[in-house]
Amino acid sequence: MLRGMELDLPPHRLIRIQGTNGTGKSTLLRLIAGIDAPTEGRITGRPPRTAYVPERFPAALPFTASGYLVHLGRIQGLGRAAAAARADEWLERLGAGAHAHTPLAELSKGTSQKVAVAQALLADPGLIVLDEAWTGLDTAARGELDRAVTERVAAGGTAVFVDHDPRRLAGAPDAVYAVEHGRLTAASEPGPAPVPRVRIVASGPLLPDELPGAPSYTPGPDGTVVFTVAASESDALLRALLTARPFWHIHQVGAAGAPTTTGRPR
C-alpha cells in the first residue's frame, strides 16, 4: 500500500523511480498515468496527453500494428492522415516498419513492445510514464527509446520511468526517488561502473539517418564531426559510417576522454 506520497512533476523533467520488487513502483506509475485512481488524496495537473508504456503489452487485440496505432492516434486527437504518418514514422524509427500490417497477435514480444512504445510517442505527450518499457527491445530500439525520452523532455514534456538496469539514462534524470515500505523518498542515482565510451572523429557530406548506439555528436575542427558512443556499439557505428552512401572518412578513433589514435582517413 502506498501512503503519504507527494510528488511534483514539472515540465522539462526526467524522473526515475527505483525500489526492489513488490514495493509499489508499478502501482505508483499507474496512478501517475491515470490508469488507476487513488483511494485517498488526489492527483492534479495531469497533461491532456498522457502516455503509458507497461512492461508487457497486451497484444491480443483485433488490429494490425499500424491499424492499432492509427486507432490510438485518433483517440489522442490526431487526424487520420496524421495518425497514419506518425504510426509509420515511429514503427520505422523503432525498427518495426516491416510489421506494420502484421496482426498484433502474431508479433513477437520484442516487436509488440515496439508497438507499445510507438503508441505512447505518437502524439507528443506532455507526460510519458514508462514501466520497464525497455524490456524485450533490441539494442537499437532501446537506444531509440532513450533518444525519444530525452527529446520529449527537451521539448517541454515530463518523463517518469522505472527500469531494472541502473545504467538506463544514467546521469540524465533530474530527480531520483525510491519507493520503500509504501513511501516515496528522494534518493541519489545508483553508481554503476562507468560505461566505456569511444570517440570517433569523422567527416562526410550527409549524416546518416540511422546511427547505431544512439551516439552523441558535435561539430569538430575542419568540418569534422566528433561522435561519442558506448564502446560496445563503436564497431556498429563505424560500420554504418563506412557503408553510408556517400560514405564517411574516419580520421580518429580512441577512448573518450583519452588521447585518440590518429591514422590515415579511410
Topology readout:
Layout: E1 13-18, H1 25-33, E2 50-53, H2 65-75, H3 80-93, H4 109-121, E3 127-131, H5 139-154, E4 158-162, E5 175-180, E6 183-187, E7 197-203, E8 216-219, E9 225-230, H6 234-243, E10 249-255, E11 261-262
What is the CA-atom radius of gyration, in angstroms?
A: 20 Å
Q: What string, H for helix and E for strand, traces the elements in order?
A: EHEHHHEHEEEEEEHEE
Gap between N and C termini: 60 Å
CATH C-level label of the largest domain: Alpha Beta
Describe the sheet with the most strands: 6 strands, mixed
- Class by alpha and beta content: alpha/beta
* CATH homologous superfamily title of the largest domain: P-loop containing nucleotide triphosphate hydrolases
> Any guess at the CATH architecture of the largest domain?
3-Layer(aba) Sandwich
Unreliable parts: 258-266
InterPro entries: AAA+_ATPase, ABC_transporter-like_ATP-bd, ABC_Transporter_VariousFunc, P-loop_NTPase
Protein name: ABC transporter ATP-binding protein
GO molecular function, one term: ATP hydrolysis activity
Domain ABC transporter: 1-206
Describe the model:
- The chain has helices at 25-33, 65-75, 80-93, 109-121, 139-154, 234-243, and strands at 13-18, 50-53, 127-131, 158-162, 175-180, 183-187, 197-203, 216-219, 225-230, 249-255, 261-262.
- With 266 residues, it is α/β, with parallel strands linked by helices.
- It folds into 2 domains: 15-187, P-loop containing nucleotide triphosphate hydrolases (Rossmann fold, 3-Layer(aba) Sandwich), CATH 3.40.50; 197-262.
- The strands form 2 sheets. It has a 6-stranded mixed sheet with strand order 2-3-4-1-5-6, sandwiched between helices. A 5-stranded antiparallel sheet has the order 8-9-7-10-11, covered by helices on one side.
- The protein starts with 12 loop residues before the first strand and ends with a strand.
